[in-house]
């Protein structure tokens, strides 16, 4: 999900965890804005491809703890976000 500083949802879609799909996502997000902070809620295994692609492109990344994700999900209840 891509949200702006005002909390407006700009992009939301499922993405497969493979290089082609992730590169498409990165490109789509950077069309919206080049001032991006990428946040992931997994710090091992499944996040390795995304992390590598982002770091290789000089993108800023942050890790969100499970608690932070849970608290943020409360804001998006109507959007079906449950984790």
Automatic annotation (TrEMBL):
Pfam families: DEDD_Tnp_IS110 (PF01548)
Protein name per UniProt: Transposase IS110-like N-terminal domain-containing protein
Origin species: Streptomyces umbrinus
Sequence ranges assigned to domain Transposase IS110-like N-terminal in this UniProt record: 2-83
């Amino acid at each position: 999900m891509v949200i702006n500083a005002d909390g407006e949802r700009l992009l939301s879609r499922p993405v497969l965890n493979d290089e082609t799909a992730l590169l498409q996502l990165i490109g789509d997000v950077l069309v919206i804005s080049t001032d991006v902070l990428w946040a992931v809620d997994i710090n091992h295994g499944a996040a390795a491809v995304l992390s590598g692609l982002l770091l290789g492109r000089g993108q800023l990344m942050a890790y969100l703890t499970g608690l932070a994700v849970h608290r943020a999900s409360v804001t998006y209840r109507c959007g079906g976000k449950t984790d």
